């Protein structure tokens, strides 16, 4: 996970709200049209911005590594100062008529000019801060009892339970109680949150661009008008493969939980090894038959790492060497002096990773991912501060995952001396097992990642009313994921709030994009000098030409629009799922054999959200939940009853 930099859009909006309200009316001044003067202004403001980022990052780092009242107070104060700076820059841009400037300079002004949620009045600002803080507090403090064990927190207690338990009732109890303790407690607060967020959006304007809803602010950094359509189009192309995985999983679950599976061919959300059914790889250990080769060891080098006495530092050194062999820079001295998400401190040499490291394969992959972020920071460090971030919100996560695609291959692990490959191994079976695990982590994640923000887009826009928020959540989960709630839900529940990114206001579509982009990058780099190797077997380790191309793209940061950078590397301006589908081609062939005889319609589900909802809305005012047509019928029936009673006693 990226630290400060990748979440800058969120920090700008939330941090800004922590400050004292600053009057946003700009004093009458002559408008500056001279681009040379504007360039000098941009140089000065970027230097100040880097200084402000550095100061705030230091305080944020202190708080994240040592949470106490003192560091919290310091962070709040730093937030106020940072907010004042951000607002001032947005106001100062009004001095310049920058519409005719070069694209490089104009885009800097566009980024500086957005105020975000800080545009709210002082009263609304305090309300927005309070409701945001309250929702996050509800989520972070939620604890439940399961199987007579109490004070269970989400991480690590409940995540471990959902990943390892084979008990249907225990999984159900944890699933329901977590939602009761988290999302259900914040329903009304969330309505207030997005109402204020939408109000803030309408107060923003950059040139002729107007903002209507909170997600308009979130998506501003994509600089792509049809980004929602691109995401929808990508998911549509991926769904046929997803349905194969869904059917494969459903058939295994029907054998394990006979009589407890819905007849509509959906999968109950609590049976997939994850609290949100967003990744299903844990079922390979808990559900018989999911692992097609249970007697074949999973590609896991944890035991070998411990045998070779790996330390956290050795794991980081191994990761550093991977990048050096690609032609990237070695880590700075300050990096090694700060062992402890990846962070950019907006200097030329201060980059850090905050991680509690276990000596296992999972953390070895995670380290390569986080080092990918650090290398990205290092490549664009010469850019002005306003451009020191990923080309779009998905690029940073994609780079980290791109590296992991090579590192996790048997070929690479063998090269590092952590995996011995001999002729007795059935490499085809091992590859299928590895690909299935990858698909249950990456491919099944895609519909969920899309739904989290699709739901918010629909709610923020008013397409879905506040009275139908939870119903729409399950409508989308049923439609795209084929997932159903294991017990009936109502509008008293607020199941989206049981996912961290919803109450914390973190845009989620970036993860959807990152999963597509990583395979596009992987294919482009592999085709440079390893076109003869299957995509799933490609390891770019040591490929200097591939490293050169990757470094070139990363060095621009956000100074070029992401479609342009994507085209320079891959040949296309749009996100494309074809490389992902190509990567998993062996697994698709395996699934086709497993599902032989199944027609296309057999792979689909017949989900009706009404079957999973309580008609009474579980105590909500039923008139409040009626549609206009239903309400008119209600009045008509009431009038008929009144006439009948009147005639009876006439």
Short description:
The chain has 650 residues and is mostly helical. The chain is built from 26 helices and 8 strands.
Model description:
With about 650 residues, the protein is mostly helical. The protein folds into 3 domains: about 120 residues, no CATH class; about 400 residues, Neurolysin, domain 3; about 30 residues. The chain contains 26 helices and 8 strands. The chain is globular, with a radius of gyration of 26 Å. It starts with 7 loop residues before the first helix and ends with a helix.
Salient structural properties:
650 residues, two-stranded antiparallel sheet, disordered N terminus, 3 domains, Neurolysin, domain 3, 8 strands, 56% helix, disordered C terminus, mainly alpha
How far apart are the first and last residues' alpha carbons, in Å? 75 Å
Number of strands: 8
Poorly predicted runs: 1-28, 338-346, 616-629, 641-650
- Figure out the total of helices: 26
Mean pLDDT: 86
Q: Structural class per helix/strand content?
A: mainly alpha
Share in helix: 55-70%
Strand content range: under 5%
Strand order of the largest sheet: 1-2
Quaternary structure type: single chain
C-alpha geometry = globular
Q: Characterize the largest beta sheet: strand count, sense, and whether it forms a barrel.
A: 2 strands, antiparallel
The CATH top-level class label of the largest domain:
Mainly Alpha
CATH architecture of the largest domain: Orthogonal Bundle
Gyration radius (Cα, Å) is 26 Å
Number of domains: 3
The name of the CATH topology of the largest domain is Neurolysin, domain 3
GO molecular function, one term: metal ion binding
Disulfide bonds: 526-538
Binding site for chloride: 510
Binding site for Zn(2+) 1: 369, 373, 397
């Amino acid at each position: 996970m990226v630290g400060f930099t990748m979440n800058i859009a969120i920090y700008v909006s939330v941090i800004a709200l922590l400050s004292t309200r600053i009057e946003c009316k700009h004093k009458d001044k002559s408008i500056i049209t001279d681009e040379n003067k504007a360039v000098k202004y941009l140089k000065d403001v970027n230097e100040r911005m880097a200084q402000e980022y550095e100061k705030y990052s230091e305080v944020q780092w202190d708080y994240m590594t040592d949470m106490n009242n003192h560091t919290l107070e310091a962070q709040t104060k730093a937030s106020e100062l940072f907010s004042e700076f951000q607002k001032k820059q947005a106001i100062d841009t009004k001095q310049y008529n920058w519409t005719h400037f070069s694209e490089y300079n104009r885009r800097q002004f566009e980024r500086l000019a957005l105020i975000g949620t800080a545009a709210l009045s002082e009263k609304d600002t305090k309300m927005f801060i309070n409701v945001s803080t309250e929702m996050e507090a509800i989520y972070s403090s939620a604890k439940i009892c399961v199987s007579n064990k109490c004070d269970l927190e989400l991480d690590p207690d409940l995540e471990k339970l959902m990943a390892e338990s084979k008990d249907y009732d225990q999984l159900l109890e944890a699933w329901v109680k977590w939602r009761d303790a988290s999302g259900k407690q914040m329903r009304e607060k969330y309505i207030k949150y997005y109402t204020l967020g939408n109000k803030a959006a309408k107060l923003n304007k950059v040139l002729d661009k107007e903002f209507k809803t909170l997600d308009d602010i979130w998506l501003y950094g994509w600089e792509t008008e049809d980004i929602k359509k691109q995401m929808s189009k990508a998911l549509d192309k991926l769904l046929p493969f997803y349905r194969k995985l869904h059917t494969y999983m459903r058939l295994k679950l029907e054998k394990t939980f006979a009589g407890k599976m819905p007849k509509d061919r959906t999968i109950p959300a609590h049976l997939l090894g994850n609290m949100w059914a967003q990744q299903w790889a844990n079922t390979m250990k808990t559900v018989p038959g999911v692992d097609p080769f249970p007697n074949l060891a999973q590609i896991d080098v944890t035991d070998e790492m411990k045998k070779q006495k790996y330390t956290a530092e050795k794991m980081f050194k191994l990761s550093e060497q991977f990048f050096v062999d690609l032609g990237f820079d070695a880590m700075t001295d300050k990096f090694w002096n700060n062992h402890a998400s990846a962070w950019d401190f907006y200097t030329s040499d201060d980059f850090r990773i905050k991680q509690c490291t276990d000596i296992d394969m999972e953390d070895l992959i995670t380290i390569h991912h986080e080092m990918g972020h650090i290398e990205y920071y290092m490549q664009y460090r010469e850019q002005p501060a306003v451009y020191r971030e990923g080309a779009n919100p998905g690029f940073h996560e994609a780079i980290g995952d791109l590296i992991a695609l090579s590192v996790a291959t048997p070929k690479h692990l063998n090269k590092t001396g952590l995996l011995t490959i001999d002729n007795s191994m059935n490499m085809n079976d091992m590859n299928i097992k590895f690909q299935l695990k990858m698909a249950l982590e990456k491919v099944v994640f895609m519909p969920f990642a899309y739904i989290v923000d699709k739901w918010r887009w629909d709610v923020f826009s008013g397409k879905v009313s506040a009275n139908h928020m939870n119903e729409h959540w399950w409508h989308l989960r049923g439609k795209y994921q084929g997932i159903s709630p294991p017990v009936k839900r109502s509008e008293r529940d607020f199941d989206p709030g049981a996912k961290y990114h919803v109450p914390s206001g973190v845009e989620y579509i970036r993860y959807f994009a990152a999963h597509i982009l990583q395979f596009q990058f992987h294919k482009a780099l592999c085709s440079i000098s390893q076109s003869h190797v299957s995509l799933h077997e490609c390891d770019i380790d040591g490929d200097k030409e591939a490293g050169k191309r990757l470094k070139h793209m990363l060095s621009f940061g956000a100074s070029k629009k992401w479609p342009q950078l994507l085209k320079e590397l891959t040949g296309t301006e749009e996100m494309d799922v074809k490389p992902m589908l190509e990567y998993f081609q062996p697994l698709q062939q395996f699934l086709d054999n497993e599902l032989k005889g199944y027609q296309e319609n057999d792979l689909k589900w017949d989900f009706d959200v009404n079957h999973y909802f309580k008609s009474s809305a579980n105590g909500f005012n039923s008139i409040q939940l009626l549609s206009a047509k239903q309400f008119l019928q209600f009045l008509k029936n009431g009038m008929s009853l009144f006439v009948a009673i009147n005639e009876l006693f006439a």
